[in-house]
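[[Sequence with tokens]]
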Amino acid sequence: MTEATAEQRRRRILDAAVDCFAERGLHATTMQDICRRADTSPGAVYSWYPSKESIIDAIAAERHEHEIHLLATALADPDPRTALHSFLDAYFEWLSDPSERLRRRVSVQVWAESLVNDRLQPTVQEGIGQRSLAWDGIRAAQAAGAVTTAADADGMARLVLAVLQGFILQQAWEPDIDIEGYRRAANLVVDALAPPPGP
């Protein structure tokens, strides 16, 4: 099997799992359901992922990797205000993708399940832990006088995270939610944290 063929098979398995989880839920979905949806043998699926939990971990790992990329790319901008706006714009653009909306429906299920399932807690904590990148960027911006010091960096990073998590939850309930309107409102929050320079 070529590397490209192997990657196509892995992608097909993960996409099939997302579809099944989004439609049936984490508990109701079986490995057999995923095999059928991926149109591949159980042996092929188990050779990649020995359990549903390992599939969930893989789906989350891909999302975390992309989130880190978006955040790191935005924070590379020397202007903190521009960086925050760029990050939110890129993030909401990502959430407008129908396939990403399906993955986020699965994320909401994993959030809830992690409250009672010790096995899934590290998967969720890894994503939340990415706010450390935001902390560093906000602290640096505060030191430069570009971001308000009326609240600490931890509180502001948690606020921005809550804005994104809240949207994801609302989008799971309301698939047709107005993304653009929410994005504009989120950017107003950024303007409050990092006001535009005066004339």
